[in-house]
Amino acid sequence: MDMIIEFPGGARVDATLGPYTVRTDQPPAGGGEGSAPTPFSLFLASIGTCAGIYVLGFCQQRGLPTDGIRIIQRSHRDMTTGLIGEIDLEIQVPPTFPENYYEALVRSANLCAVKKHLENPPKFNVYTRATE
Length: 132
Hints:
Layout: E1 4-9, E2 12-17, E3 20-24, H1 39-62, E4 70-77, E5 84-92, H2 102-109, H3 113-119
Antiparallel strand pairs: 1-2, 2-3, 4-5
């Protein structure tokens, strides 16, 4: 699927995917208005929400309630590179959630397609082409 990336003004950069538009902006300190998440924040959010889809699906398939379940995502910077060096996904469940499913929730979250692509990154081809 093609995505169209456009520049609607200021520091905003938007991506159109079929009928959806994903808006991004920079914070005021970065020259933007802070009207939307930064692209990097969306990238990080895609990890946690993807894991969440798999946790949600696991619970729904088994008729387990999802009330009170949440994932806390923590990013840890590598001080030598300045890049994110480690990401924790803590799946929090209410005290009534059956403990025998804890490891299965972890296995479900590990099925996340975003995580799998980060572990086996694609090759990037970046180029310029004049349009007609």
